[in-house]
């Protein structure tokens, strides 16, 4: 049936099995991301022994402590380096190969399986390089999917069910975190797979969801919005939308997409350079870049390493406790009722305050060599609270703010750039945290505090409120250069998000 032959109506949009399967299939990719971002930490000691032993066999001398520290830091951070590179290609992949279907998923999953192969044979082959290459390849996989997955889920979601903010790279990793902590993280414990013999197998477990991903491929539709706006295939878009909605009555959404496509005709392609030149893009991209940088420079991703400084007897178990708090407050963030800028600002204040408080017990504990026992418990409590603030504030918001500030034509490029920027700062922190810790001790956390304080001020004055507002309304505010962004207000009380449409309006 042609899209033009559909009768106009305004059906109640329901959740269909096709929609659920598409989201769950996307989650299989997020499982791999959530797993690989943390699975290498538990077997750190046995992997460092492997590094040292391999080095000895090659050069007949053990590695120096400095060389071992730098090699470990580089191995861990290589994932973020790979993600930084691949995130820059998201716009090309999304616009030329589709959000989900065969080409993009085959490309991404092939990277995952190659990475598993390299990491799995690294010990048998006695190759440090194989492990590093494997981490880089899985980083390429992560960089693509952290943007493609939320982009796809947002575009297939029913408009009237978008009462929550759009799904994000941070939030779709929830299932990956959960599985990593509840099962895979258990497998990485010293008495399970985190041993000198089995750690390569532990690093390769993500092959399971990768294979399952291929099995779900034939049942997952493409984004209808992609077919109309990028491919100009109205019939294909109508067919895919009917699968997703479980009804033949999809004219309302089709017309909305066609209107957006018509408005985009004759406009120049959005490039990364144009994001910094065009006035309607310049302020949003600066906002997104600063929020993504501050999210990583907050030091959240190294917070669990402080347990080693605190002298915790079983840091792996305590790290799993941090992961449980991580999951709990990620769930809480899905049901937040305040607007984004209010949530971000409040929780950045909380995060900055807790880093300021945490610097004192860290310093005391290191200076006194653990002779003041209460500092250890105070520090652990502060870190748990820090994680809670991060998961309901800067963590998720830094990802979905980009999707809410840009139209369809600019969104893939903008999300790719900000995702790459986010991963780049994660790489910087992972690579240089330990050397800086050795150089300046606990005062390295003052740097994190400083970055958070800057983010607090910037958020308060510049980040707009986007909840219950269309892209048209947000973009109109950006064009008014003489109006401070802090003056932006949400829609009047009582106006539902469904009444103003989705955040994918027309520029």
TrEMBL record:
<dbReference type="InterPro" id="IPR036259">
    <property type="entry name" value="MFS_trans_sf"/>
</dbReference>
<feature type="transmembrane region" description="Helical">
    <location>
        <begin position="71"/>
        <end position="94"/>
    </location>
</feature>
<dbReference type="GO" id="GO:0005886">
    <property type="term" value="C:plasma membrane"/>
</dbReference>
<dbReference type="InterPro" id="IPR005828">
    <property type="entry name" value="MFS_sugar_transport-like"/>
</dbReference>
<keyword id="KW-0812">Transmembrane</keyword>
<feature type="transmembrane region" description="Helical">
    <location>
        <begin position="439"/>
        <end position="461"/>
    </location>
</feature>
<keyword id="KW-0472">Membrane</keyword>
<keyword id="KW-0732">Signal</keyword>
<dbReference type="InterPro" id="IPR045263">
    <property type="entry name" value="GLUT"/>
</dbReference>
<dbReference type="InterPro" id="IPR020846">
    <property type="entry name" value="MFS_dom"/>
</dbReference>
<feature type="transmembrane region" description="Helical">
    <location>
        <begin position="318"/>
        <end position="335"/>
    </location>
</feature>
<protein>
    <recommendedName>
        <fullName>Major facilitator superfamily (MFS) profile domain-containing protein</fullName>
    </recommendedName>
</protein>
<feature type="transmembrane region" description="Helical">
    <location>
        <begin position="132"/>
        <end position="153"/>
    </location>
</feature>
<dbReference type="InterPro" id="IPR005829">
    <property type="entry name" value="Sugar_transporter_CS"/>
</dbReference>
<keyword id="KW-1133">Transmembrane helix</keyword>
<dbReference type="GO" id="GO:0070837">
    <property type="term" value="P:dehydroascorbic acid transport"/>
</dbReference>
<feature type="domain" description="Major facilitator superfamily (MFS) profile">
    <location>
        <begin position="18"/>
        <end position="467"/>
    </location>
</feature>
<feature type="transmembrane region" description="Helical">
    <location>
        <begin position="378"/>
        <end position="401"/>
    </location>
</feature>
<feature type="signal peptide">
    <location>
        <begin position="1"/>
        <end position="30"/>
    </location>
</feature>
<dbReference type="InterPro" id="IPR003663">
    <property type="entry name" value="Sugar/inositol_transpt"/>
</dbReference>
<feature type="transmembrane region" description="Helical">
    <location>
        <begin position="106"/>
        <end position="126"/>
    </location>
</feature>
<dbReference type="Pfam" id="PF00083">
    <property type="entry name" value="Sugar_tr"/>
</dbReference>
<dbReference type="GO" id="GO:0046323">
    <property type="term" value="P:D-glucose import"/>
</dbReference>
<dbReference type="GO" id="GO:0055056">
    <property type="term" value="F:D-glucose transmembrane transporter activity"/>
</dbReference>
